[in-house]
Design a protein that fits this description.
alpha/beta, Rossmann fold, seven-stranded mixed beta sheet, three-stranded antiparallel beta sheet, 8 helices, about 25% strand
């Protein structure tokens, strides 16, 4: 973990960094925009199975980046709204929607905590949050309160995330090196982003992240009156996080060797 000084405004620092990532990501092989436009699925199989049929439903994607997952839900029949704090991301998402003819897709500029006001108090059948989102938020109780306000009666939140236990492991993927209960901000000052193997240069290099335990997330949702339909811990992940992992469509520990949870998913419903 780094020892860099905390910026005066964590939200502005993170936004500047993600603004800079947008053109790099849109042009990257990692996101393969051309393939997506041609019909490539960006959602993971387990997400599609756990969310279920979305045809005719309204779906809000929080922290949507430039909209590939949002628009994949639209392809499955949902009426989608994507929300992200990066204006360049929202502009890229809007352009992508036009390219694929997703005429009813809407994208809104806002940070998560301002989502209720940004969306004029509207509620949704499904509120979806995808991989790598919660680490950018300092206050999970406030996040859960926001989510609960955005879910329509009878609707649900679906969250898919990287498992926080995996964040305790050293680079070998075997040794516990970091504290699972670390809750202070971690400040990184690193050029580049995760696309295409090599780190691509970005001008704004400082980011601030937080770790949130499984119990913290579940308890925050339950405290807002959402019913936990399931919490699934997955023995796979979607990228080569550790060298020990073997790839067969997904990445997991070799058969016969001890493994740890690498991802998790939660569905939490709001009573009708």
């Amino acid at each position: 973990m780094t020892k860099n000084p905390m910026p005066a405004d964590w939200l502005a620092a993170n936004r500047a960094n993600w603004d800079g990532r947008v053109p790099v990501h849109v042009a990257s092989d990692f996101y393969d925009v051309a393939g997506f436009v041609a019909g490539k699925e960006s959602l993971r199989d387990f997400e599609l199975a756990e969310v279920g049929e979305v045809g005719g439903k309204s779906l809000l994607h929080l922290q949507c980046h430039f909209g590939q997952d949002t628009l994949s839900w639209a392809r499955h029949g949902a009426t989608v709204t994507g929300l992200d704090f990066s204006r360049p991301a929202v502009e890229a998402a809007t352009a992508l929607a036009e390219r694929i003819g997703a005429d009813t897709a809407r994208f809104v500029v806002s940070d998560v905590y301002g989502a209720v006001d940004a969306l004029d108090g509207r509620t949704f059948d499904v509120v979806y949050t995808g991989l790598g989102a919660l680490c950018w938020l300092p206050d999970i109780a406030r996040w859960a309160r926001t989510v609960a306000a955005l879910v329509a009666p009878g609707g649900f939140l679906y969250l898919a995330e990287f498992h926080p236990f995996a964040d305790t492991l050293a680079e070998d993927g075997r040794t516990v090196e970091y504290d699972y209960f670390h809750r202070e901000a971690t400040v990184w000052d690193e050029a580049g982003t995760y696309t295409d193997g090599e780190l691509s240069p970005t001008a704004a290099t400082v980011t601030v992240e937080w770790q949130h335990g499984i119990g913290e997330v579940v308890s925050a949702l339950a405290a807002e009156g959402l019913r936990i339909d399931f919490l699934h811990e997955h023995d796979f992940t979607v990228f080569a996080r550790f060298p020990v992992l073997k790839h067969d469509r997904v990445f997991r520990y070799p058969e016969g060797q001890p493994g740890v949870p690498l991802m998790y998913s939660i569905r939490a419903g709001k009573p009708a």
